[in-house]
Amino acid sequence: ANQILAVNAGGTALGFTSISSTTVQVFIANGTYTRTSANVFQVLAYAKAGGGSGGSASIANVRGGGGGEGSESWKYLAGSAATGQTVTIGAGGAARGAGLNASGNTGSATSLGVLITTVGGVGGTSGNNGGAGGLGGNGGTKDWGFPGDAGQTGADSAGAVGFNAAGGGKGGGQALGAGIANSGGGGGAGFVTGTS
């Protein structure tokens, strides 16, 4: 029990090594991944990109679309390869202000060096241009992963409002009024976890 098959320190033979625990490191800001000991032979890394921000509008009774969710990536890495890699956390797309006919901004990629990468969600379309939700991020370097969900559609001319999508903000404008300040909310930031 609690053993894994691993290559010895000299790299010449396989053998069973006891493991006593699992360690999880979570990054929500940029940094450097360092394995907790030389006995960390394998790391399961997970990364999620930032979401897109919602679109805004410059006319009443419409709202921009919600931003798309950032993609997710998982990858098994050798502990020795993962350690020392730069962790870059993708920011959510910057919010759009009131009174603008502007689509939201795309979220940024999250990565662990070049070993695992993600793609940010796309900003929602401006309300003046239909208020379609932004596409979810899709792609990246991974063993497996998922694309982000698309943002929800904004309000129609009758003021029916689309709901927020994961990672995305709701677009600008309000029924019978001008745009709401910062209503194209910024998408959620990405993060990286390493389980060893």
Describe the structure.
With 196 residues, this protein is mainly beta. It contains 1 helix and 11 strands; from the N terminus they run ββββββαβββββ. The strands form 3 sheets. The chain has a 5-stranded antiparallel beta sheet with strand order 3-11-5-6-10. It has a 4-stranded antiparallel beta sheet with strand order 4-7-8-9, with no helix packed on it. The longest helix has 4 residues. The two termini are 17 Å apart.
Keywords:
single chain, 196 residues, mainly beta, 5-stranded antiparallel β-sheet, 4-stranded antiparallel β-sheet, 2% helix, elongated
Termini separation (Å)? 17 Å
C-alpha Rg, in Å? 21 Å
Number of strand elements: 11
Low-confidence stretches: 156-185
Helical stretch tally: 1
Strand content is 15-25%
Q: Please describe the biggest sheet, giving its number of strands, its sense, and whether it closes into a barrel.
A: 5 strands, antiparallel
Overview in brief:
The protein is mainly beta. Helix content is 2%, strand content 23%.
What are the SSEs and their pairings?
Layout: E1 3-7, E2 14-18, E3 24-27, E4 31-32, E5 42-48, E6 72-78, H1 79-82, E7 86-88, E8 111-112, E9 116-117, E10 144-146, E11 191-195
Antiparallel strand pairs: 1-2, 3-11, 4-7, 5-6, 5-11, 6-10, 7-8, 8-9
